[in-house]
Amino acid sequence: MITTLLCSERFNDQGLCPDAAGLGEDDQTTCPQCGSTAGKKLDRERLEALAHLFFVHGTLRRPKFGGYPGLQFNDRRYPEDSVVFPAWLVGDARLIADTLRIGIFAYGPRFWMFGEIEPLKALRRRRTRRAVVERIIAEYPTHDLRLSDSFFRLRINPKPQTEFGQYDSPPEPRSGRTYGRLDAPGQPAMYGSQDLEVCIHECRTTVDDQTFIATLRPTRDLRLLDLSAVLKENVTEFESLDLAVAMLFLAGRHSYGICREIAAVVREKGFDGLVYPSYFTLARTGGMPFPTVYGLSLRRFPSQAEYIQATVIRNLALFNRPIADGCVTVDCINRVVLNRVAYDIQFGPGDFGNRD
After folding, report:
1. Strands 142-145 and 103-106
2. Cα gap 303→13, rounded to integer Å
């Protein structure tokens, strides 16, 4: 039996209610706040998790590079009355804050959280980009894709569906014009993943599409530069090459020019391709970008490296046309049928402001 502080039926905000129900315990005891026996019960640990889910994760800001929450809370700021919530949320926010004795406040991010990182700034400038790319190639590990390693390549409406060449890199007229992150005119790349669901997300597949997936395997060991790795560094976040590269691959189309130039130099160095973090990593794992402890990135702590690495969804980009070149073979091709699409949804405040 848990020590109940609140229950899921105590809240007025209809976003807090399902989040609380998802975290709460199915316990028939009476809620000390509202007297309900039906609501899911929240002890201190679960209520803190709800506060983090709704007020911190639910206010995630995604600038051009990086990410940070709009709100944060801790017990050192109690009582706190600086945030102005909408009328329907005021009472719930105050109830959570008073029950946990925490202060909820507008979060002022450290500058590195929105891309003020020296290697990233250097990558964004053409005159300094090449030097950082050379550092990336020197400092990131290699990964061997072996004969026993299979991966997936998804195509929408290929014709004919079972022709192996349909699953190779795009033909020359389309190479570099399909808005790929790592291909360019005259520098084709085959994109794949060992995560089937990520393949579906990456291709923006809909239920109306005729979707086919090839299971591929290398015919020889392929040497890839692994940009999904977590680097061991002895620097601050503002000087971190590791954070710079991670932010680059979680950024949108505005980052493609830089990524393509990295791929071009990696190709020059004789690599067969790249391993890189999927743009859809957060959507696949449900995590926060660049988690911190008191403003310090977890990526700085060696003890957290294994945890951080486990949260990265890895994609593959193989240079040239691996199937036509004979270094990748097709094991089989199957149609993909989307029977059901489920969303893992959470909520956050619809709006908030600061008192003057």
Report:
1. unpaired
2. 38
Query: What are the helix (H) ranges across the chain?
Result: 16-23, 44-51, 87-100, 118-124, 126-139, 196-202, 241-249, 256-268, 281-285, 305-310, 322-325
Which string of b and e fits 42-64 if b means at least 16 CB within 10 Å? Answer: bbeebbbbbbebbbbbbbeeeee
Contact between 125 and 117 under an 8 Å Cβ cutoff? The reply is no
Closest-CA residue to 270 (of 228, 223, 217): 223
Can you spell out the DSSP letters for 58-91? GGEE--SS--EESEEEEGGG-S---EE--HHHHH
Q: Which amino acid is at 249?
A: F
Residue 275 and residue 136 in contact, taking contact as beta carbons nearer than 8 Å: no
Across the range 325-341, mean pLDDT stands at: 92
Closest CA to 230 of 240, 219, 216: 240
User: Closest by alpha carbon to 129, among 287, 230, 257, 311?
Assistant: 257
pTM of the model: 0.89
Alpha carbons 170 and 153: distance in angstroms, whole number: 12
Give me the percent of the chain exceeding a pLDDT of 70.
97
Q: What is the pLDDT of residue 176?
A: 47
* Contact in structure between 324 and 165 (CB atoms under 8 Å): yes
Q: Taking the domains of the chain in order of start, what are their residue ranges?
A: 6-109, 113-336
Asked whether 313 and 278 are in contact (CB, 8 A), the reply is yes
Alpha-carbon distances of 133 from 267, 274, 318, rounded to whole Å? 12, 13, 18
273-277 and 222-226: which strand pairing?
A: parallel
